[in-house]
């Protein structure tokens, strides 16, 4: 990778172009490999595609840019505390609708921090959901027979299949 | 949660589910057959436990018994929320019993009147196992009952040590295995020790407790360790301690919290950590005095170590606050748990799905 490259351009799965700084891209192993492979020379004009849709990629890049300085240099406890607060806000604001997409992207891009954060956010949201809401978001069918439901109800009166 | 939800691969779903409290998982076993089975598989239970132990370590606190006030058990979670710990109805006798040990979400409970009546209880899934009575070893005082887990054999064991009436140098130790569901008796020559006593602690499958060795100047304190996997005892000298001391776990190592009252006004506390491991032979024992806490202007009674801080209650003060002492920063802080100043015990606890192979104690888990 040329030292003169400070940011690279990537394509989302929707075909939109995004800029990501080299230091931020280092948070992801696959992105890092792409940097080394594709943009090895300055005259490289091939734009790599990342299999993540635009709406999700914006958020993933936002997360990377925010976390890059700390990941690359280490940080004090107060920075870590500040970053933790930022993470909570980041997950609160407008990612709920695309949370599962973020999860998939973080998994695919090997971004441990974002993956953990998204898993925890999903778990926290699930605590307040009903059984049928859970089935809906995970695309699960209720496959208990009526006998099994009856048996479970006997074992745990008050348990709900809805 | 609105929006569209792509199909998540099973490993991502598992990673989300392991972060849920047991209460939610109990509810979500009604989602599908697959989920119900998943919550009972050993690997999922172990992932969930690992997350619970590291990300949400709790403290279980019991106030000293006050008449007609049964709600005196509390759970403090890692977000500093205090929950009243619900005693299941059948456990009314907890009033006359006590919790002896806590490991991976399982509690070992003993009725005060009898050493032979023991229970293993997972309060989160409300499952309880009545440990079968044993009539061996009734010819002596029992002075050790410990409960611990060995990751090597993936089993929980209860160890009862007896001090024989006839002062023979052969002691009887009984070991109950949760996996096999049966008792085993071992006659051991406690290497010149007059017996072993609770409370102890289990670290990485090795149980540690106090033993008393007959020395030239009378009794001498030694540390007796019992490997739960191979069921063998070893004895090691204790470091130079203050008048009182108790076992604890610090950074997954065996630790001793040692304290005394100085000038009738202050508490002085040292934290000793066993830095070296235990070898089968040619052991390398190395106690290091890691920290000394600055004299604290109150009588403290340290109970355990939680998130690398020593947890104490203050004796003689009518407040319900528990005192936390950080050995590295030397900072101390207080936090109110329960209603009364005196705490009968404080245990580390992490809720889990670990089954005890018993019956459901209460059907109402919602």
From TrEMBL, chain A:
Pfam name, any one: Skp1
GO terms, biological process: jasmonic acid mediated signaling pathway; protein ubiquitination; ubiquitin-dependent protein catabolic process
Keywords for the protein's UniProt record, in alphabetical order: Ubl conjugation pathway
Keyword Ribosomal protein included in the entry's annotation: no
SKP1 component POZ domain span: 8-67
Residue ranges annotated for the SKP1 component dimerisation domain, each copy included: 113-157
Highest taxon in the source lineage: Eukaryota
Pathway connected to this protein: Protein modification; protein ubiquitination
UniProt-listed InterPro entries: SKP1, SKP1-like, SKP1-like_dim_sf, SKP1/BTB/POZ_sf, Skp1_comp_dimer, Skp1_comp_POZ
Family of the protein in this entry: Belongs to the SKP1 family.
Function: Involved in ubiquitination and subsequent proteasomal degradation of target proteins. Together with CUL1, RBX1 and a F-box protein, it forms a SCF E3 ubiquitin ligase complex. The functional specificity of this complex depends on the type of F-box protein. In the SCF complex, it serves as an adapter that links the F-box protein to CUL1.
Record-linked PANTHER family: SKP1
Quaternary state and interactors: Part of a SCF (SKP1-cullin-F-box) protein ligase complex.
Name of the protein described by the UniProt record: SKP1-like protein
Taxonomic placement: Eukaryota, Viridiplantae, Streptophyta, Embryophyta, Tracheophyta
Automatic annotation (TrEMBL), chain B:
Short name of one Pfam family: F-box
Domain of life: Eukaryota
SUPFAM superfamilies: F-box domain (SSF81383), Galactose oxidase, central domain (SSF50965)
UniProt-listed InterPro entries: F-box-assoc_dom_typ3, F-box-assoc_interact_dom, F-box-like_dom_sf, F-box_dom, Gal_Oxase/kelch_b-propeller, SCF_F-box_component
Residue stretches making up the F-box domain: 2-48
UniProt cross-references to PANTHER family, sorted A to Z: BNACNNG10540D PROTEIN (PTHR31672), F-BOX DOMAIN-CONTAINING PROTEIN (PTHR31672:SF10)
NCBIfam families: F_box_assoc_1 (TIGR01640)
Protein name: F-box domain-containing protein
């Amino acid at each position: 990778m040329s030292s003169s490259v400070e940011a690279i351009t990537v394509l989302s799965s929707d075909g939109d172009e995004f800029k990501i700084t080299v230091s931020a891209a280092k948070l992801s192993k696959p992105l890092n490999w792409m940097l080394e492979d594709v943009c090895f020379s300055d005259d490289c004009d091939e734009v790599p595609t990342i299999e993540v849709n635009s709406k999700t990629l914006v958020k993933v890049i936002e997360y990377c840019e925010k976390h890059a300085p700390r990941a690359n240099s280490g940080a004090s406890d107060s920075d870590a505390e500040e970053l933790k607060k930022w993470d909570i806000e980041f997950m609160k604001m407008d990612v709920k609708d695309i949370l599962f997409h973020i999860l998939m992207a973080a998994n695919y891009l090997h971004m441990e921090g974002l993956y953990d954060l998204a898993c925890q956010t999903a778990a926290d949201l699930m605590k307040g959901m009903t059984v049928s809401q859970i089935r809906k978001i995970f695309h699960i069918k209720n496959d208990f027979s009526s006998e099994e439901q009856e048996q479970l109800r006997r074992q745990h009166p008050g348990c709900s299949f809805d | 949660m609105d929006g569209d939800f792509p199909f998540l691969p099973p490993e991502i779903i598992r990673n989300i589910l392991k972060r849920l409290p047991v209460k939610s998982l109990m509810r979500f076993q009604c989602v599908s057959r697959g989920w119900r089975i998943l919550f009972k598989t050993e690997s999922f239970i172990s992932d969930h436990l690992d997350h619970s132990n590291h990300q949400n370590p709790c403290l279980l606190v019991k106030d000293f018994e006050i008449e007609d006030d049964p709600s005196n058990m509390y759970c403090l979670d890692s977000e500093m929320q205090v929950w009243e710990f619900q005693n299941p109805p059948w456990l009314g006798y907890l009033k006359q019993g006590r919790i002896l040990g806590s490991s991976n979400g399982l509690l070992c409970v003993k009725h005060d009147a009898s050493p032979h009546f023991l229970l293993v209880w997972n309060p989160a899934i409300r499952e309880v196992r009545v440990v079968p009575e044993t009539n061996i070893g009734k010819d002596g005082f029992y002075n050790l009952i410990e409960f611990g887990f060995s990751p090597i054999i993936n089993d929980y064991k209860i160890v009862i040590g007896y001090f024989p009436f006839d002062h023979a140098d052969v002691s009887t130790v009984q070991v109950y295995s949760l996996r096999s569901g049966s008792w085993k008796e071992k006659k051991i020559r406690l290497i010149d020790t007059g017996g072993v006593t609770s409370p102890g602690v289990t670290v990485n499958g090795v149980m540690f407790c106090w033993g008393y060795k007959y020395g030239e100047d009378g009794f001498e304190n030694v540390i007796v360790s019992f490997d739960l996997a191979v069921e063998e005892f070893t004895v090691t000298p204790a470091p130079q301690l203050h008048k009182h001391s108790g076992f604890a776990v610090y950074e997954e190592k065996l630790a001793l919290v040692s304290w005394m009252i100085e000038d009738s006004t202050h508490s002085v506390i040292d934290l000793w950590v066993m830095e070296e491991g235990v070898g089968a032979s040619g052991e390398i024992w190395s106690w290091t005095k890691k920290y000394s806490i600055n004299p604290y202007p109150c009588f403290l009674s340290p109970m355990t170590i939680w998130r690398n801080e020593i947890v104490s209650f203050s004796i003689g003060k009518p407040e319900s606050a528990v005192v936390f002492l950080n050995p590295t920063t030397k900072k101390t802080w207080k936090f109110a748990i329960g209603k009364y100043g005196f705490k009968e015990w404080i245990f580390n606890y992490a809720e889990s799905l670990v089954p005890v192979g018993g019956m459901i104690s209460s059907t109402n888990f919602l």
